[in-house]
Amino acid sequence: MKVQLFIDGQAHLATLGSNLAAALAGLPGRCSVSGQPRAALCGMGVCFECRVTIDGQPHQRACQRVVYEGMEVAREL
Amino acid sequence: MSSELHTDIAIIGAGPAGIAAAIAACAQGAHVTLVDDNPRPGGQIWRGGPSQAPASASSTFRQLADSQARLLSGFRVAAIPAPGQLLLEDPHRAQVLRYGKLIIASGARERLLPFPGWTLPGVTGAGGLQALVKGGLDVRDQHIVLAGTGPLLLASAATLRAAGAQVLLIAEQAPWSQLARFGWALKAYPAKLAQAASLAWQLGGVPYHHASHVLAALGQTRLEGVQLQLGARTLTLPCDWLGVGYGLLPNTELLRALHCQISQGAAEVDALMQTSQAGIYAVGEATGIGGVDKALLEGRIAGLAATGAAAAAQALAPKRKRQLAFAALLDKHFALQPAITQLAQPDTLVCRCEDVSHASLQLFDSWREAKLQTRCGMGACQGRICGAACESLYGWQGSGDRPPLLPTRLGSLLEPTLAKANPT
């Protein structure tokens, strides 16, 4: 079963129950303080590399969140 | 809105150790609250919860479900407002938890060390990639290289393969002589030997190189390939994912903040798992990396000891010897080779949060000095990644943990004051 989430306003489908960091893999991710591209590193909530804004809440670790219908994700640039 | 929770036994971490502690403490009639940062219980080894865990875990999950333990998933410990209290935060709210006794089952993280290109998207921890796949990352037909050290590389490779990935090779930094001695010593642990044999069987056909390590991850904006040192030769391989992990490190931030004695990176405990602070226990990987059997046993001991069942706890304590001997084996045979700490080039970033390079850190003699001048370790992860790197590369010890333990909302930090003003 799939759920629809919005990443920077674009609709994406993800498998129900899956992890948000897994759903974001392959999409452009965050930029570091010096402008380098970054994505999930530790996969378990330690490194904060996968952080995104979720439903208006900034600095949420994507790897520690499960996707849900209507989830609004914004990349932190 | 403000609220305060009360419990007899607070347990931090719902991996095998925390779950075992909760089951044992509940059976003694105590009120137990199990707090966990992840969306589902199970820790990292059983990441994804009951539906994804191996059969061996199902009875443990069933006992937890049948117990009266209150499970707070998705909550992390932000700060310690006062003795006997923890400030918890989830994505939406903050709560103060008041406890009688505390059991810390904070688990472990991977040791991630810098090498050229390690910040590229597509480079992850070896266990990190396994965690992402358990979380639903689609790796079907993806080409993957795993490198680093320890049995986790094999477990990760098995998970990736089962998910349809093509694991091109595993590069283990330990030399053959050490691996052979580890294999020989495993004879004393038939269950672990059987597990290793089963992994080896599942990984049939995946080349396993000893005395080998990653030299560099290649790519512009995403990983495109990897350069490897395989014994005496070098090899460049195109790949989609590179998982690199140099063993595990106990998560000790909360223990340090509570002034529990730490020795060689792990919590010091007595025979009944109590730390140097009365009423605070530590169990599982937090007391030293030893795997799931050690975690389950220590959780049980602490769950009993913390609820006054000292005799029952004492009766289990001798069984720990065997688990600790296994932990020592892991430590000894997968010790890092000197080459691993010399992979960073001058422009390789060591602190990924503040983008601080190896060259700029080499100018300093201590963690504190480097922090003040470069912001190394002062970013979002609060030194959780670069702290271990700086210790391995420069021999710097951490300079102590101060609350908040993680980036925390200002509103959450106000919660203890609000809770006092509006007691429930």
TrEMBL record, chain A:
SUPFAM superfamilies, A to Z: 2Fe-2S ferredoxin-like
Protein name: (2Fe-2S)-binding protein
Pfam families reported in the protein's UniProt record: Fer2_4
Source species, domain of life: Bacteria
Keyword Oxidoreductase belongs to the record: yes
Keywords: Oxidoreductase
Automatic annotation (TrEMBL), chain B:
Domain FAD/NAD(P)-binding: 8-295
Signal peptide: none
Key words, A-Z: Oxidoreductase
GO MF, one example: oxidoreductase activity
Enzyme Commission number(s) from the entry: 1.-.-.-
Name of this protein: FAD/NAD(P)-binding oxidoreductase
